[in-house]
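Hi V.,

You were right to ask for the full record rather than a summary. Here it is.
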Amino acid sequence: YCDLLQCMEVNMLKINQRNHKCNSIRAQEAIHICLMNIDGYIKEMEYDLGNYINDENKILSEALLMSFDPFTNADLKKEVKNLYDLGNKEEMKKYFAIPVKCLLKIEKSIETWLKNMGNDGYFNFLKNQIGNYVSNDDKMEFTFIKEQ
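Predicted structure:
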């Protein structure tokens, strides 16, 4: 799942580099927002996250969603609609299985780096690992993996 993980992390790092208020804590919140969105798609319901969403976690969640969510990213939807019936709950579960795994993996990483390096530990870690390779633009990366 490296390609999808990379897209998610690159998109969030781009946001963090432009707005340092979008820190590791806000990234963790953004993951929760994305997970709730996915759950809402599958259960055909919309959660009221109004009290939870702020400017920073909203921007980060949008960056994450752009990396994998065909309901957010129209270019991705064009690619995915030929492989998955997004109107079918079981097909949606199949499609979102890998993004959910990636989101949970990133959340674990954020927890680790928050403990080890403080409020911006995760992004400091990312900058050290991939910062030199991340372009300074607004383009959000995306990909999808066809579940076998």
